[in-house]
Amino acid sequence: GEDVEQSLFLSVREGDSSVINCTYTDSSSTYLYWYKQEPGAGLQLLTYIFSNMDMKQDQRLTVLLNKKDKHLSLRIADTQTGDSAIYFCAESMRMDSSYKLIFGSGTRLLVRP
Amino acid sequence: DGGITQSPKYLFRKEGQNVTLSCEQNLNHDAMYWYRQDPGQGLRLIYYSQIVNDFQKGDIAEGYSVSREKKESFPLTVTSAQKNPTAFYLCASGLAGQETQYFGPGTRLLVL
């Protein structure tokens, strides 16, 4: 089945690291994604990882992929108040000649000053 | 300035009324998608199109219709058959045959 699970809420102090976790079900997904949504806005593509990679680092963001456990995480170093948002994990799933994204319910990150 | 635009930002629908949400992109993407987002939930796929004059139903197409007459445009009509239309609607686009999708700013639809 199609299911992506995320914890609902995370609160961290400014300057600390944040770790947002996600589990997915489709082992054939080629790419896994992290999107950020600020209040009332669309989704901003933050980063993605190819399924044959274990880790990807992009400035303050580190993505870890454990394909055996179907577990994905996003670590934000030196978290700032501007990082407060909802973070969505998504896996890609093939449909006919196209792909769709299966999203988790989102993790709301609150950064306390 | 390349990107995806959606209009209007807010839309109000009366009972029995059809309303149309606009989505335009100038990224030269072949594929376009419509998703619905309800509070506290992820996004669900309504319709998608890989090429002009062709589109397919997604997971929750009932009560919606689309057209794809131009590569740049993929309007979504919420018909009176959609009994629970209040939601945040997001349009996305991407390169044909590739998985990454880029999103517009969204339209919030409210029922009067």
Average pLDDT taken over every residue of chain A: 93
Low-confidence stretches of chain A: none
Assembly form of the protein: heterodimer
Total beta-strand segments of chain A: 11
Helix content of chain A: under 10%
What does this structure look like?
The complex is a heterodimer of chains A (113) and B (112). By secondary structure, chain A is mainly beta. Chain A contains no helices and 11 strands. In chain A, strands 2, 4, 5, 9, 10 and 11 form a 6-stranded mixed beta sheet that branches. In chain A, strands 1-3-8-7-6 form a 5-stranded antiparallel beta sheet, with no helix packed on it. Chain A starts with a strand and ends with a strand. Chain B has 112 residues and is mostly beta strands. The interface between A and B is medium-sized, with 27 and 26 residues.
Features:
heterodimer, A: 113 residues, mainly beta, 6-stranded mixed beta sheet, 5-stranded antiparallel beta sheet, globular, B: 112 residues, 7-stranded mixed beta sheet, 11 strands, 50% strand
Can you describe this structure in just a few lines?
The complex is a heterodimer of chains A (113) and B (112). By secondary structure, chain A is an all-beta fold.
Q: Could you outline the blueprint of secondary structure elements for this entry?
A:
The complex is a heterodimer of chains A (about 110) and B (about 110).
Chain A: E1 4-6, E2 9-13, E3 18-24, E4 31-37, E5 43-50, E6 55-58, E7 61-66, E8 71-76, E9 85-95, E10 98-103, E11 107-112
Parallel strand pairs in A: 2-11
Antiparallel strand pairs in A: 1-3, 3-8, 4-5, 4-9, 6-7, 7-8, 9-10, 9-11
Chain B: E1 4-7, E2 10-13, E3 19-25, E4 31-37, E5 43-51, E6 54-57, E7 64-66, E8 76-78, E9 87-94, E10 102-103, E11 107-111
Parallel strand pairs in B: 2-11
Antiparallel strand pairs in B: 1-3, 3-8, 4-5, 4-9, 5-6, 7-8, 9-10, 9-11
